[in-house]
């Protein structure tokens, strides 16, 4: 059996090489993970099969598809997809199957990532369900101590020209998707699901990255649906449904005193259902050279959201050992336009800005937020800007 499998593998590599020689015009080389020893029975670990398939794909100087057929694949450790030495022009990971994490949360929980991509370019992930089985780790965190931090389900580092489409991430141990030091990443048609109370399960986290697009995502999770960290530039988020979750957040910023800014972010057509926050900008009360500049919040529906519009420059969850400085994060040129719905608290618009560097250029237009049919209120300090047309509640700028 083993002999037969290694024969199949060698055979598929030989075919691959032949195709990459002669198939310059159309043929995309296709590699099936089954021929690398992956088992769709949910029981046999497939870490090695996935990384072997990736290595084979990288060796092909052509367009390659790695195909994961229907079935359940146990993946009980980190799978690293490294691109530095890839010869391939483009790699598509086409996944019809479900990848499942191990029952023992320690196996993944002590790694930083479940699936990590570093230094890759021209990579597409098409489809696939990633079920990290995070519940047992969250239970550990809720009840015990000495729990590992947990793994991010899909992480991209130092990569460019990447597309992630039609992916489902279920019950991630920590962040579902994280983008770090990347350029030109498109995330489309993804679904993210984890319960309300699952800790640190941010849906999509972006930092130190440029030219990022997130389109048509449905995110239900225990932390921020989308979190936008320092060094994010040219980000378009369009058509997101969020809830449960903590909303779409720029921040937390001012985690350190030296920090890159967040620049040119647009969030369009977002729907928030029973989230803790809607559109939030948050920074720790710490001096920092970071900043937020040119943000557009265009069109949002709030359904029973605790803080629909929030700028919090005194962010300090848990209220213990907080730095107690004025935040050094300068927030300038932020537009809120076309934001409607219901607030679950009376203060629908709260802007608690830094006294040292007040928020400036805050523009509000076409806003209509109420508190269960009653009038909502604003609470704003150290904010300046302008109000255009109908803004309810008004009085912030
Ligand atoms: C990326 O893929 C496209 C489409 O196949 C191709 O035209 C381009 O040359 C590739 N880029 C690199 C850097 O390989
Ligand atoms: C949005 O994404 C979902 C998958 O999450 C997909 O079924 C649907 O067709 C997408 N809608 C559009 C307009 O692309
Ligand atoms: C701002 O980001 C958008 C994408 O969201 C991009 O099209 C535009 O060119 C960027 N603007 C600048 C000045 O870089
Ligand atoms: C709004 O959400 C709160 C919890 O945040 C809940 O208690 C309340 O029943 C919800 N109201 C409606 C009308 O959905
Ligand atoms: C900031 O807000 C505080 C509290 O409302 C106020 O006392 C202070 O004068 C404001 N500072 C500036 C620079 O506007």
TrEMBL record:
Example GO CC term: the record gives:
apoplast
Which keywords belong to this entry? Cell wall, Cell wall biogenesis/degradation, Glycosidase, Hydrolase, Secreted, Signal
Xref: InterPro entries: Glyco_hydro_28, PbH1, Pectin_lyas_fold, Pectin_lyase_fold/virulence
Residues annotated as signal peptide: 1-27
Record's subcellular location: Secreted, Cell wall
Q: Name one GO biological process term.
A: root cap development
- One Pfam annotation, family name? Glyco_hydro_28
Question: What domain of life?
Answer: Eukaryota
Chief subcellular site? secreted
List the active site.
246
Gene Ontology molecular function: any one = polygalacturonase activity
Q: Which family does it belong to?
A: Belongs to the glycosyl hydrolase 28 family.
Protein name per UniProt? Glycoside hydrolase family 28 protein
Identify the taxonomic lineage of the organism of origin. Eukaryota, Viridiplantae, Streptophyta, Embryophyta, Tracheophyta
């Amino acid at each position: 059996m083993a002999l037969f499998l290694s024969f199949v593998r060698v055979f598929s590599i030989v075919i691959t090489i032949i195709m990459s020689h002669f198939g310059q015009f159309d043929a995309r080389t296709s590699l099936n993970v089954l021929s690398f020893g992956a088992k769709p029975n949910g029981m046999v670990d497939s870490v090695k099969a996935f990384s072997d398939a990736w290595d084979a794909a990288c060796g092909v100087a052509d367009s390659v598809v790695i195909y994961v057929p229907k079935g359940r694949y146990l993946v009980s450790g980190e799978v690293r997809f490294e691109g530095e030495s890839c010869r391939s022009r483009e790699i598509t990971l086409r996944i019809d199957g479900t990848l499942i994490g191990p029952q023992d949360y320690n196996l993944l929980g002590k790694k930083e990532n479940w699936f990590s991509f570093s230094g890759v370019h021209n990579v597409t992930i098409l489809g696939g369900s990633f079920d990290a089985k995070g519940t047992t780790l969250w239970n550990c965190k809720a009840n015990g101590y000495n729990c590992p931090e947990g793994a991010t389900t899909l992480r991209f580092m130092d990569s460019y020209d990447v597309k992630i489409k039609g992916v489902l991430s279920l019950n991630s141990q920590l962040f579902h998707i994280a983008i770090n030091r990347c350029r030109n990443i498109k995330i489309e048609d993804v679904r993210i699901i984890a319960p309300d109370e699952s800790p640190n399960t941010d849906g999509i986290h972006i930092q130190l990255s440029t030219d990022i697009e997130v389109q048509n995502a449905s995110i239900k999770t225990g932390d921020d649906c989308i979190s936008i960290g320092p060094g994010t530039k040219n980000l378009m988020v369009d058509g997101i449904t969020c809830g449960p979750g903590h909303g779409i957040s720029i921040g937390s910023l001012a985690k350190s005193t030296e920090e890159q800014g967040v620049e040119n972010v647009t969030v369009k057509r977002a729907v928030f259902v029973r989230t803790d926050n809607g559109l939030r900008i948050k920074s720790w009360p710490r001096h920092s050279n970071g900043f937020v500049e040119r943000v557009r919040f265009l069109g949002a529906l709030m359904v029973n959201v605790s803080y629909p519009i929030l700028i919090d420059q005194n962010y300090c969850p848990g209220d213990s050992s907080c730095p107690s400085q004025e935040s050094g994060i300068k927030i300038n040129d932020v537009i809120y336009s076309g934001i409607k719905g219901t607030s679950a608290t009376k203060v629908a618009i709260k802007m608690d800005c830094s006294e040292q560097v007040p928020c400036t250029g805050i523009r509000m237009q076409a806003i209509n937020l109420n508190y269960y049919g009653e009038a909502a209120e604003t609470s704003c300090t150290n904010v300046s800007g302008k109000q255009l047309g109908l803004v309810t509640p008004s009085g912030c700028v």
